[in-house]
Amino acid sequence: MLELLQRAAPFLLQALWMTVWLGLVSFILSLMVGFVVAVARMYGPWPLRFPAIAFVSLIRGTPLLTQILLVYYGLPQLGFTIEAIPAVILTLALHAGAYTSEDIRGGIQSVDKGQWEAGYSSGMTFAQVLRRIVAPQAVRVITPSLGNRFITMMKDTSLASVVTVVELTRVAEQIGSASFRYMQMFVIVAVIYWVINSLLSLGQAKLEERMRRAYR
Amino acid sequence: MNSQNSNLAGVPHTHPAGVCQIRAENIHKRFGNLEVLKGVSLTVNKGEVVVIMGPSGSGKTTFIRCLNFLEEPDQGQVMVCNLDVACGLRVASRERSSKIRQLRVKAAMVFQSFNLYPHMTALGNVIEGPIQVLGMRRDEAVKSGEQLLAKVGLADKRDEHPSRLSGGQKQRVAIARALAMNPEVVLFDEPTSALDPELHEEVLQTMRQLAGDGMTMIVVTHEVKFAHEVADRVVFMADGVVVEEGLPQEILVNPQHPRTRSFLRLVDH
């Protein structure tokens, strides 16, 4: 086992970096997607609102794996060829963005209507009230669910392995098949995922604690 | 239709140029099938304190909210100083929205439920508008914000968040926040109604002081004593119209309209 670990270490390290990078970039993009979709859905005129609702419904109603395969293997048939890594990032960002948009929508709606009125009555624009008054309060409400989304995202990056992206799960599979030691490799990789997500949970708890203090 | 005479209290109709006047003309507002305002007009001169009273459902809160477009009137016209916004067209244009924002700066609002920004300190609440909307430099905004907090007696609460303040203190911060925009008129929407009785006085005291400074104020309230002492004019509303309007001693002591009489019997004074 130790010897296997030693041999696999350089590959695992590289794969770990890929996994974390995939998760982080996709998560940040998903926040932007979620915010835009949430605002379009709540405040957009109907030509924006309808696509936003349809987008959320389609994404939530279909499996992530299907979506990844569709983007990577399906789109080239229509003339859109996307490299594996961008394809995965795109899909993860859109997928998580649909869920995040619902979190963000809930968070924004949880802010008292009087806050909008106070902002508007002092002459602020929609964007100013949203940015300065409503969003900072919504963020505190949304943080726990966004933390969970991030953790889910980290695990979902494993699906990138099916479209040839060399991340943790694919490395485990490759080394496992080359050495016939699948069990050991998948246990190692599972532990790595667990450690990443435990660290994230810890960070999430710290962040939530800080946000609770901020009102006092 | 609109037979209310808004010239009862000896207020002259014409004013020298440059003096700011707040005028609402023939304001109509409907929520679904309910016609809340059936053509309300009001003219308030600079430095005047006008108290609007009336039973709940009379439309007084809707009316004052129409004055800074928290409710969009279905019909009518709102004028604050030289800013004139016509309603009823419902055509949202950039130009109109920008005019409404300018009008809101001149007509600051104090809410029944305070609506302080909970994520900001008392000072943060006061300087937010000046920095974001008026484009004031932060150090200037802080300086005048501190002065305003001192004026409402809360200089020492500068760095407290609203959750640490009492209701009366919150409302005083809200008043400071309104004043920070350097408005032409302050609109008060039942400023003491959400407060415990023992906290009314500190807010009313702040408002008296403001009136004494010559601030133009339109106040929706049930505080008869306050109206008596401070108001230059009392407007009585019922069922979406102004039924009676005049000097406080006329309206509050010797009301002519039966709706005013029955209402005043009900509120203690």
TrEMBL record, chain A:
Pfam families for this protein: BPD_transp_1 (PF00528)
Transmembrane segments: 20-40, 52-73, 182-203
GO cellular component, one term: ATP-binding cassette (ABC) transporter complex
Subcellular location, principal: membrane
Localization terms from the record: Cell membrane
PANTHER family recorded: L-CYSTINE TRANSPORT SYSTEM PERMEASE PROTEIN TCYL, MEMBRANE COMPONENT OF AMINO ACID ABC TRANSPORTER
Protein name: L-cystine transport system permease protein YecS
Species of provenance: Meiothermus granaticius NBRC 107808
Taxon lineage: Bacteria, Thermotogati, Deinococcota, Deinococci, Thermales
TrEMBL record, chain B:
UniProt superkingdom: Bacteria
Pfam families xref list: ABC_tran
GO CC terms of this entry: plasma membrane
SMART domains in the record: AAA (SM00382)
Principal place of residence: membrane
Compartments in which it is found: Cell membrane
Single GO term (MF): ABC-type amino acid transporter activity
Keyword tags: ATP-binding, Cell membrane, Membrane, Nucleotide-binding, Transport
Sequence ranges assigned to domain ABC transporter in this UniProt record: 22-264
Topology with respect to the bilayer: Peripheral membrane protein
Protein name per its UniProtKB record: Arginine transport ATP-binding protein ArtM
Naturally occurring in which organism (per UniProt): Meiothermus granaticius NBRC 107808
